[in-house]
């Protein structure tokens, strides 16, 4: 597993419990799923600026994809590759609704339990969720 991916997952884990706030980019006042990625990247030592021009439902996510294209991770559109710690996964929750999350434990190690970290709008905070993401993966960014 990549040390960079593990650093990203560890930085995301430090944000668990942070309040949810749409367009939130500051862990003190709240984060949404995009803000979680930005804050975790910063916590892992990487600069990433993400757009604020989106709603909970979006017809086009091109600005977000362009911003993530600047991340020091490789994008793959192959959704069926196994999860790896530190993967950033773009999921489709429903029509026009997209969600980003970070794989915390991939299950590739015998002692690790599969889980992911994400900003949960319904629970109003950043949470760790056991298991694999239940939503279809559209794209993934992975540190090599």
Would you kindly provide a written description of the structure presented here, covering whatever features stand out?
The protein has 144 residues and is an alpha+beta fold. The strands form 2 sheets. It has a 6-stranded antiparallel sheet with strand order 3-8-4-5-6-7. Strand 4 and strand 5 form a beta hairpin. The longest helix is centred in the N-terminal third of the chain and has 11 residues. It is globular and about 35 Å long.
Count of helical stretches: 3
**How many distinct beta strands?**
8
Q: Percent range for helical residues?
A: 10-25%
> How would a crystallographer describe the biggest sheet?
6 strands, antiparallel
Structure classification: alpha+beta
What's the overall geometry? globular
- Computed CA radius of gyration, to the nearest angstrom: 14 Å
- Strand arrangement, major sheet: 3-8-4-5-6-7
**What is the succession of H and E elements?**
HEEHHEEEEEE
Distance between the amino and carboxyl termini: 8 Å
In terms of per-residue confidence, which ranges show pLDDT below 50 for 5 or more consecutive residues?
Answer: none
Rounded mean pLDDT is 82
Provide a quick synopsis of the model.
This protein is an alpha+beta fold and about 140 residues long.
Features:
two-stranded antiparallel ribbon; 6-stranded antiparallel beta sheet; 3 helices; 20% helix; 144 residues; globular; alpha+beta; single chain
Sequence-ordered SSE layout with sheet pairings:
Layout: H1 3-13, E1 25-26, E2 30-31, H2 33-43, H3 62-68, E3 74-76, E4 88-94, E5 97-105, E6 115-120, E7 125-130, E8 137-142
Antiparallel strand pairs: 1-2, 3-8, 4-5, 4-8, 5-6, 6-7
Helix pairs in contact: 1-2
């Amino acid at each position: 597993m990549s040390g960079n991916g593990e650093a990203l997952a560890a930085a995301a884990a430090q944000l668990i419990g942070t309040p949810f706030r749409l367009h939130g980019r500051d862990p003190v006042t709240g984060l949404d799923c995009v803000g979680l990625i930005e804050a975790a990247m910063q916590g892992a030592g990487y600069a990433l600026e993400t757009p604020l021009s989106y709603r909970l439902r979006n017809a086009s996510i091109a600005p977000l994809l362009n911003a993530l294209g600047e991340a020091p991770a490789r994008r793959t559109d192959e959704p069926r590759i196994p999860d790896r710690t530190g993967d950033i996964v773009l999921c489709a929750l429903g029509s026009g609704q997209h969600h980003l999350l970070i794989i915390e434990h991939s299950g590739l190690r015998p002692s690790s339990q599969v889980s992911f970290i994400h900003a949960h709008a319904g629970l109003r905070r950043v949470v760790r969720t056991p298991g694999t993401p239940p939503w279809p993966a559209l794209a993934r960014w992975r540190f090599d």
